[in-house]
Amino acid sequence: MGRHTLSDGRPANLAPAALAVQRASAAAEAESATVPLSSQQLLMWLAEQAGTAGSAYHMHAEFDVAGPLDREVFRRAVDALIARHDILRTTIVDAEDGPRQVIHEPAPQSISVIDLAWEHAGADAWTRCDPVARLIGRRWDLAHECPIRAGIVTSAGSVVGVVFVLHHVAADAESLEILFGEFAALYGAHQESREPPLAEPAPRYADFARRQRSPSAQHEISRKLERWSELLRGAPQTISLAIARPPAAEPDSAGAVVTMLVDDTVAAGLRRLATELRATVFVVALVGFAIALEAYGADPDILIATPSQQRDDDCDAVVGCFVNPLPLRVRLSGTATVRDLIRQARATVLTSLECRDVPFNSILGAMKVRGAGDVPPLAQVSIRVAPAPAPRIDLGKAVLTRVRHADADAVKYDLTLVLEQGEGDTIRGIIEYRRHLFDHDAMARFAASLGAVLKQLAENPDVPVALLQTMPTSAVRRILEQWNPAHGSGEVTGVQWPARCYVLDRYGRLSPVGVPGELVISGTGAEPDPFADASGTVMRRTGVSAHWTATGELSLASRAASGGSREIDDRAPGGYDPAVLRQIQSIWSGVFGVENVRAQDNFFDLGGDSLLAMRVVSRVRRSLGARLTLKEVLSSPTPAEQACIVSARRES
């Protein structure tokens, strides 16, 4: 490929958007000074401040352009779109009493023009070029940049692509469809010099945020928090999967995907089962997902997050982020049938939906969840149903066709199952995962296992969980027929290698590749061997932990401490300056409203949460002139530990 240049020689960014912010009127700032963040915005703002979000909250859509696109009309349509929705001209400032929205006056939006110095080749070749990647991935300064970016891509004098990027603080998936529909109407109206047939949006997103903070809403949240406490009492706060690598020293949001197709027959069976049990395909898939996660090392008591819409009836046409994560608890039992689990999951989902207006941050605070900053507490894995996005935008002479990507550039969770309705009855599954935790081959095996589980749910919902096969038949045959007899990597009492053997999970099922279980030897012992070809064959449990590698080797190295386990390191670094400690203790006193904070007091025991942690970060920066990150406040939760960190930075 040739050189990538911009029309004005600068990087593809929206620096002029910051200038538009500076032009906002004082009256507009005064009006918006009382606008708090919604709970959804607060969650993402905290992640941005922690520096762990990367581009995970950058929602982007790229479109191939067929036909002549009028650049000036495009620009005017974008400006009109931003003028219609004040959330698109909103920045977030860190005030003393917490972050606030500042709504600015409409101003011309800079459109990035990316000129490719090579002939356009391939349906989506331009989407992979560096300038487009920078436009999408460049870190968002929410205090100075409005939450929308737009760009056009040209090649050989023609517009070949259009890019829209929105920060999740200003939009959700439903908002994107609203915006693209309105953009088409605005483009057509400006092209024909007529008024667009669009009603004024009401209420504004700021009204939704204010409504969330009203006394009546807060009272309702307090009441429903008790329900959440009952639902989640004793639930594990993290998930460890056997196929996860140790976390990177500096975790990031870089992601990738594997896809799976649930064929028409299986999809129809899942729908029939859901209808019969008065549930939804989502609930059935939730159970299947939980079963697959447990097979790969998760606890049978599992929390799986799912996004819930909080749009009221009067917000149908409002652009903004109305999504609130809900932690759904699934408790598996080997003796429970698939039907039993679906009924239980349905009840859990209904109860959770009744309490969906409780902000996720409030749930974390009520449960006193502790996290190290890189671990999404209560929400490491997630599931969601995503209707296939509208494939095209008709602009008259020009048609924009949405480009579908085979990969994910950034992800919010360690592992996410996305269900999309395909053609006919087909269901398309997309598994998004963090690259630093999982490799592609392991995720492909997980996807195959999930597909096998869903097929069994559809075909035989009366079978107990303990009898479900958690690998596709091809993988089972490979273990039983190609990898056996096996040569173990170590000595086991009473075993002569090679030997026919299995690795079994706690239910006595074959463990998937890479997942540790108990080594069992066939041909000796007193327990019947259900995997042998000949009847009457017996097997013996050894009590030794083992797992199969991807190349068919039997490893006897115990992995009881899974690579996916992530513990908070509470050890304080070296010494601290006593003056720094006293200053941090004073900051804590102001944040928590208590006197006599001791050096070893614990942030969480005093009622600390993510928002209070950010206040500590902000005040340390102002008072001591040193950086203390959100992750460090959460993982070093005493004044003494934080004083060590700050003292070391001041000295350096």
Number of strands: 19
- What is the correct CATH architecture of the largest domain? 2-Layer Sandwich
Report the span from N to C terminus.
45 Å
**What proportion of the residues form beta strands (DSSP E)?**
15-25%
Strand order of the largest sheet: 1-5-6-7-2-13-12
Low-confidence stretches: 1-33, 558-573
CATH topology of the largest domain: Chloramphenicol Acetyltransferase
Mean pLDDT: 85
Superfamily (CATH H level) name of the largest domain: Nonribosomal peptide synthetase, condensation domain
Question: How can the largest sheet be summarized?
Answer: 7 strands, mixed
Q: How much is the radius of gyration in Å?
A: 27 Å
Binned, the helix content reads: 25-40%
Model description:
It is a single chain. By secondary structure, the chain is an alpha+beta fold. It has 4 domains: 4-211, Chloramphenicol acetyltransferase-like domain (Chloramphenicol Acetyltransferase); 214-393 and 403-464, Nonribosomal peptide synthetase, condensation domain (Chloramphenicol Acetyltransferase), CATH 3.30.559; 473-555, Luciferase, Domain 3 (Luciferase, domain 3), CATH 2.30.38; 578-651, ACP-like (Non-ribosomal Peptide Synthetase Peptidyl Carrier Protein, Chain A, Orthogonal Bundle). It is 35% helix and 20% strand. It has 18 helices and 19 strands. The chain has helices at 15-22, 26-32, 39-50, 71-84, 130-137, 173-191, 205-212, 215-232, 264-276, 281-295, 338-354, 360-366, 440-459, 473-482, 578-592, 610-624, 630-635, 639-651; strands at residues 4-6, 58-66, 90-95, 98-103, 112-116, 148-155, 158-167, 255-262, 301-309, 323-331, 381-385, 392-395, 398-402, 415-421, 427-434, 501-504, 517-528, 538-548, 554-555. The protein has a 7-stranded mixed β-sheet with strand order 1-5-6-7-2-13-12, with helices on both faces. It has a 4-stranded mixed β-sheet with strand order 8-15-14-11. Strand 18 and strand 19 form a beta hairpin. Helix 9 (264-276) packs across helix 10 and helix 10 packs across helix 11 (338-354). The radius of gyration is 27 Å and the shape is globular. Residues 1-33 and 558-573 have low confidence and may be disordered.
